[in-house]
Amino acid sequence: RELELAHEAMLAAAPQIKARLSSNENPWGPSTAAIKAISDTAPKSFLYAGPVTMELRKAIAEMNGVSPDQVLLGAGSSELLMASLLMAGAKGKVMMAETCYISGRDAREDGATMPTIKVPLTKDYQYDLDAMDTRLSADTSLIYICNPNNPTGVMLPSAKLSSFCDAASPKSTVLVDEAYIDYAPNPATDSMVEHVRKGQNVLILRTLSKLHGFAGLRIGYALGQPATLKELRKYCSGGFTVSTTSAAAAIASFKDKAFQEMVLKNTAESKKFLYDTLKSMDYTYLPSSANFVLFPIKVKGQVLLQKMMAEGVSVRSWFFDQQNWCRVSIGTMDEMKAFKEAFAKSVS
Ligand code: PLP
Question: Whose CA is closest to atom 2 on ligand 1?
Answer without folding.
Answer: 179
